[in-house]
Amino acid sequence: MGKPLVVLDNVSYQYDSQEDFALKNVSMKVYEGEWLAIVGHNGSGKSTLAKLLNGLQFPTEGSISINGITLSEDTVWDVRRQVGMVFQNPDNQFVGTTVQDDVAFGLENNGVPAKVMGERVVDALSRVNMESFLDQEPHHLSGGQKQRVAIAGVLALRPSIIILDEATSMLDPRGREEVIETIMKLQQEESITVISITHDLEEAARANRILVLNKGEIYREGTPEEIFQMDEELVRLGLDIPFPVKMSKQLSEKGVVLSKYYLTEEELVAELWTSHSKM
Amino acid sequence: MDISLKNVEYRYQNNTPFERLAISDVSINIESGQYLAIIGHTGSGKSTVLQHLNALLKPTKGTVWIGNREIRAGRKEKNLKEVRQKVGIVFQFPEHQLFEETVEKDICFGPQNFGVSEEEAKRRAKEAIKQVGLHEEILSKSPFDLSGGQMRRVAIAGVLAMEPECIVLDEPTAGLDPRGRKEIMDLFYRLHRENHVATVLVTHSMEDAARYADEIVIMHKGRVQKKGTPYEIFSVPEDLLELGLDVPEVVRFQLKLEKAFNVKFGKICLTAEELTDAVADYLRGGTPK
C-alpha cells in the first residue's frame, strides 16, 4: 500500500437544519494509488463525506488532511487542485459548448497558458477514449460519454485524487460499464487514486477496498471479498449482495459443496466445473 | 381502462428543418390490470412512447386510444384533463418537480387541479403518504427538508393521490439504494395486484422487467422490435444481446454454466431460486429438465 493521501481524523458534520449528525466520528485513510469504494444506504452520509473531501463543506468537528495539507478555508483552493470531483448528473456538469471547450474550462479557470492548454485537453480526452469527439456538442453524446468528458475535465487539471459521487447512477448499463472501465484503466495504468461513492455493488466489487457507511458512521471496512461475506448483514444495512455471492450461498444451501462464496460469475462457474463436472 | 397505440408515428419539430423521426409504426396494447415493461436503449424511443400514454405528445401519424378517448394525428385535442387524471406518470427523478411549501400541499396540488375538494384531497394525501411508507407527520414538513429517498416517495404519493387507473413509471428507482429500490418496486407491484392498477414500467433493469412484468416490449430504433412474456423474451437471449441489451443476471449466469458444462437446462430460469434448483438437480446426476 502506498502512503496515505487522505487522512480523516474524527470527523463529524451536522447540517444547520438537522438534529442528527450526518457524519459521526469518521476516521479513515485513503492510500496513494488505491481505489476505495464507499457504500451505504441513502442518507448514510456518503455524499456529505464527498463534499467534505473537496472543501465544499467543512467538518463541524475533527480534521481532514489531503496530501499533507490540512483542509481549511485558507487551503481549500490548494486542496481542490489535488482533488477532482465527478458528480451524478451528466447534464448538470457539462459547461462548454463542445467537448474540447468543456475540458478546457477548468484549465482556463486555473490560468493555464493557451499553448499548454490545447495539449492537455487532447491528452486528457485520449485517456478516456474521447479524443475523436473534440468538436462534438453535448447533446450528441450519450450519458456515458458525457461522464467520460467530465472525467477528462478533471484529469486535465492533473489531480492526485478523483472522487466519483454516484457518477454512474444515472447511466444506462452500457454507459455505466464505459465509465467503470475508464476508471479501472486510470487507476491500474496511471496509478490515480480513486474514491467512488456508489450503490452499485458490481462497481464496488471492482475496488481494492470498500468502506461501508451506516447512519453517518463507519460500519465496516475491508476488501470486496471480506465485505461481501457479510451477506444478510448487508441487506439489513439497506444494501444488497452481488449476484454470484447470492448464487453461491443458495447452491451451498441446496447441498452443492463450494469452498467459498464467489465474487465473480467466472470463478463460480470454474469451481462448479472443476469439482462437479466429472461426477 | 385499456390504452392502445395503433401505428403511431411521432416526429419532433414536425415540418421544420429540425424534424426528427422518434418512433414509427408503434402498436401496443395495455389492457386494464396488466403490467407491461418497455425496454430498450437510450434513444430507442421509450420515452416518446411513454408521453403518448397520457397525450402529453400527440401522434404525427396513427391513433392512440386512452379508455374511450381517441387521440388522432392531425386533430386539435381539447379537454385532456380527464385523460391526464386517469393516467399518472412518474417521471425520472420526480422529486425535481416538488415545489410546494409543505408535503401535504404538494400532494394535494394534483387532485385539486382536477377538481377534487380540499377536504378530499387532504384525505387522499394522508392515504398516499402511508402507501409510500412514510409517516403522516411528514405532511406538515417542507419537501426540501427531506432526504432524497423521502422526496422521491413524496413525489410518487402526489401521483397516487390522483387515483389513476394506469400508472406509468419511467426508471422510478434510479439513484435509490438497493433497499429503497425494492421497496418502491414492491409498492407499485402491490398497487397493481390489489387495486388492479394497470402499470407500465420503462426501465433499463432486465431484472425488474423479468420479475414484475407480465409482458415485455422491446423498442429498437423507434420501432417495436419484439413483444412477449418474460419467458418468451429471455428464452432467446441471442436476440437481446444482438441489440446490445442485457439479459437478467440470472439468465447470463445460466448461459455461462451451460457453456462450461456443454449442456442445456431445457428452460431459461428467471429467478436465482429456479436456477439453483436446476443446477442442484443437474449436479446430482438428474437429467436437465
From TrEMBL, chain A:
List, alphabetically, the InterPro entries matched.
Answer: AAA+_ATPase (IPR003593), ABC_transporter-like_ATP-bd (IPR003439), ABC_transporter-like_CS (IPR017871), ABC_transpr_CbiO/EcfA_su (IPR015856), ECF_ABC_transporter_ATP-bd (IPR050095), EcfA_1 (IPR030947), P-loop_NTPase (IPR027417)
Q: Does the keyword Aminoacyl-tRNA synthetase apply?
A: no
Q: What is this protein's name? A: Energy-coupling factor transport system ATP-binding protein
Q: Does the keyword Nucleotide-binding apply?
A: yes
Could you tell me where this protein is found in the cell?
Cell membrane
Pfam families noted in UniProt: ABC_tran
**Protein origin, superkingdom:** Bacteria
Give the similarity note: Belongs to the ABC transporter superfamily.
* Keywords on record: ATP-binding, Cell membrane, Membrane, Nucleotide-binding, Translocase, Transport
CDD domains cross-referenced by the UniProt entry: ABC_cobalt_CbiO_domain1
Name all ABC transporter domain ranges.
Answer: 6-240
Provide the Gene Ontology terms for cellular component: ATP-binding cassette (ABC) transporter complex
Which GO molecular function entries does the Swiss-Prot or TrEMBL record give? ATP binding; ATP hydrolysis activity; ATPase-coupled transmembrane transporter activity; cobalt ion transmembrane transporter activity
For membrane topology, the record states: Peripheral membrane protein
TrEMBL record, chain B:
Where in the cell?
Cell membrane
What is said about its interaction partners and assembly?
Forms a stable energy-coupling factor (ECF) transporter complex composed of 2 membrane-embedded substrate-binding proteins (S component), 2 ATP-binding proteins (A component) and 2 transmembrane proteins (T component).
- Please provide, in alphabetical order, the Gene Ontology terms of the cellular component aspect for this entry: ATP-binding cassette (ABC) transporter complex
Q: What is its EC number?
A: 7.-.-.-
Q: Name one GO molecular function term.
A: cobalt ion transmembrane transporter activity
Is Membrane included in the keywords of this UniProt record? yes
- Principal location listed in the UniProt entry: membrane
**Name the UniProt record assigns to this protein:** Energy-coupling factor transporter ATP-binding protein EcfA2
Keywords tagged on the record = ATP-binding, Cell membrane, Membrane, Nucleotide-binding, Translocase, Transport
Alphabetical list of InterPro entries matching this protein? AAA+_ATPase, ABC_transporter-like_ATP-bd, ABC_transporter-like_CS, ABC_transpr_CbiO/EcfA_su, ECF_ABC_transporter_ATP-bd, EcfA2, P-loop_NTPase
- Report the family membership: Belongs to the ABC transporter superfamily. Energy-coupling factor EcfA family.
